[in-house]
Specification:
This protein is mainly α and 91 residues long. It has five helices and no strands.
Length: 91
């Protein structure tokens, strides 16, 4: 086995339960449509479903950033810049 494989096999498995948060944007955009479709309130003179969709974009971005931050702390990503330099050299 290579040293990298031994290192990865020696690290304890990391829980990926935080990735279930990715269901929130789906439920926000698809599951809640029947609930917000009949709302008559017009914030900023826009139809409420449009405001709901725009708010969903912000919520989705925040959730993806949160999950990225958690995943970034996992050792499988590594802290060395060799991979990013190699990727830049391939272009």
């Amino acid at each position: 086995m290579s040293p990298e494989t031994e290192m990865l096999s020696a690290t304890p498995p990391v829980s990926r339960r935080h990735r279930w948060l990715l269901l929130i944007p789906f439920l926000w955009q698809i599951g809640a449509v029947p609930l917000v479709n009949d709302v008559a309130w017009r914030p900023f003179s826009l139809p409420f479903p449009m405001v709901w969709q725009m708010a969903g974009i912000l919520v989705t971005s925040a959730i993806i950033a949160f999950i990225f931050a958690i995943d970034r702390r996992h050792p499988e990503f590594g802290d060395d810049d060799d991979t990013s330099e190699q990727a830049g050299a391939n272009h």
